[in-house]
Amino acid sequence: MPYSAKPRKLRLAPTPESASLRLLGTSWLSDRSLLCVVSHGAEVARFDTARLLREDFATELHVVSRRHPRDEREGGAGGASSLVHLRGDRAVRDGRAFGLNLSAGAGSWRIDARSVAKAATDLRSLIRNQFTNLQAAERAEVVRFLATSNGASGDPADQLRESRSLHVVREMLRERLPRCELSASKLEGLSVEAMVAVSESSFYVEGWICDVESAAVRLTAVSPEGTRVELISQLFRYDRPDVQAFFKPTIGDQATAKCGFIGYFQLDAPSRLPNGWLVEMETAAGTVMETAAPPLIASDDLIASDDRIRAKLLGDLVHDSEDQELRRVHISPALAVVQSERAARIMVERVASFGQEPPDPAVSIVVPLYGRIDLMEHQVVQFAGDPDLRRAELIYVLDSPELKEELVAKAERLFRLYGVPYRILILSENAGFSLANNIAASCARGQLLLLLNSDVLPKERGWLSRMVAFYESLEEPGAVGPMLLYEDDSLQHAGLYFERPTEARTWTNEHYFKGLHSELPAANVARQVPAVTAACLMVDADLFHAVGGLSGGYVQGDYEDSDLCMRLWKAGRKNWYLPQVRLYHLEAQSYPSKAREMNRQYNRWLFNETWSDVIEEINWVFAPPVSITSDRRERPRKARQKVPVDHTVGVAETASEPVEMWRQR
User: Fold this and answer.
1) Residue 624 contacts by C-beta under 8 Å, 6 or more apart in sequence?
2) Cα separation values, 236 from 320, 322, 340, 401, Å
3) Exposure on the CB side of residue 556, measured as CA atoms within 13 A
4) Coil, strand, or helix at residue 317?
5) What average pLDDT score do residues 563-571 get?
6) CATH architecture assignment, domain 346-446
7) For the chain, domain boundaries
8) Phi/psi at 384 (nearest 5 deg)?
9) pLDDT by residue (tens digit) across 394-417?
10) How far apart are CA 478 and CA 469, in angstroms?
11) Distance between CA 206 and CA 12 in Å, rounded?
12) Which DSSP letter does residue 562 get?
């Protein structure tokens, strides 16, 4: 049936209720969002529900309303008016006529299509006619109301249109303060040097204040949509020698220490525009000024944006104070949001399977590939001659999606050459070490998980069955890690312990016997250890998921494995080192060392913040062997001369029978 826009089909017979409400003006903020100004009886405080009525459909609208500031000032004698912000769950603006139904308590009012059409106007005209004659505080309240009723869900394009409309409202109604003009001859100054969009409602600001003559008592960030947040009480202040030098001709040696500021803050409503941020300052003497912030450190390229944000936040660690306030109050919460936002976006974009995987694998091997996909070939070559690997599920997870076509072609070629069956998970974007492992683990079918770096290569066949047999022989096992060697057969890993160097404030990860000879008797004892590295770590799959997998709070680099082992320890499990399995680890070949070093400091701090008390307890139980000294933490250039030692020294009981039983599965 063709649509008819005749208003009589939507009109309601006049009633006392409908006669007491009149639509003064309405304008679209976006395809889903409508701003209305209505006059009504003084008894109406706010509207509760709303419906949009068209001939072809009717839909519920989310409604937020407040009394018009003018009526609040005048007391609403004889009547009142309200701002009503309506939002639909889908686009409702398509040029066709519609009516509205508004409800407040027991009252209900119907506005017909003709009345809606008559009141419709463009946004600027509505704001100009209804609000520009208000006092400054009242205009600010209108801006605040609209900004805080901004929707947090829906179509991103529509949300962006609404944010642009709200920016128009802010610019028409806000009180403009004097712009701060930076000059060395003045005793006051304000500059915002960076504004970072951590998420749509979380932001990070950096700049400086010169308030020598009169201290700043208010510093307010104003979003492009008009949301305001006070910063002065939550800023981290630090020295800025460059700013001191700039003002020295005027202020001489007067104190300008700690004029730099950094702050992480959250808004009551989302902000989506890259431009338009303002920061206002007021001093104790009553001087007010404002300055525009530079464009947000963010972009449509979410991956590049995340990388820039992390680099910015981690780079600011150099400004931290002795009490570590900057990282604890500002950088860590901001990084946590960046990490969780990315985790929420990541998905498995594509799955490619090569060969026939075992129907019921006892163990699933998870190998993240980041950057250097050539390492996969070196592993597959070693796996090809080992029957154990054909009974295991092998999952490669690509954490560099830009290499997906190259990897799929390589994987197909490697399967034809070596016949090792495996599956490849291609992520939608770079997830980081923890999340890549967690995603692959969630797709694994084995009862046991083996987390394996792409730069770890087996020294001999049968290593996997020995690890499985050892794990299954233990009572209450947590994680099990093997002996890892450098390419010259010196020790890289024989379990992890935690050490606090002299005069240091934080615990660090240390490898037992690192750089020493692999035949060192003490290194050839299967034993409990505080932790093992995730370069090669076996754990029960259900247990792994029960403790939350690898933590996503760490920036890729270090300490995710130690954190996992701490959670296993708290769950009552024991972590073990198994020297009877030996693999080579080309340590960090799959991860650029420069990037790794940038993240290590933050991860170490986060690990200590989380586990410092537990580490004290664990280190009492697992004291480092007396052969470990502080000057042996670095790997020597050459392994010491080999000493003939019986390989069976200290071997835990792992009879061949359970190994053969596993191989027959």
Assistant:
1) 497, 499, 510, 512
2) 9, 12, 24, 37
3) 24
4) helix
5) 96
6) Alpha-Beta Complex (3.90)
7) 22-173, 189-342, 346-446, 456-625
8) -60, -35
9) 999 998 889 999 999 999 999 999
10) 14
11) 57
12) H
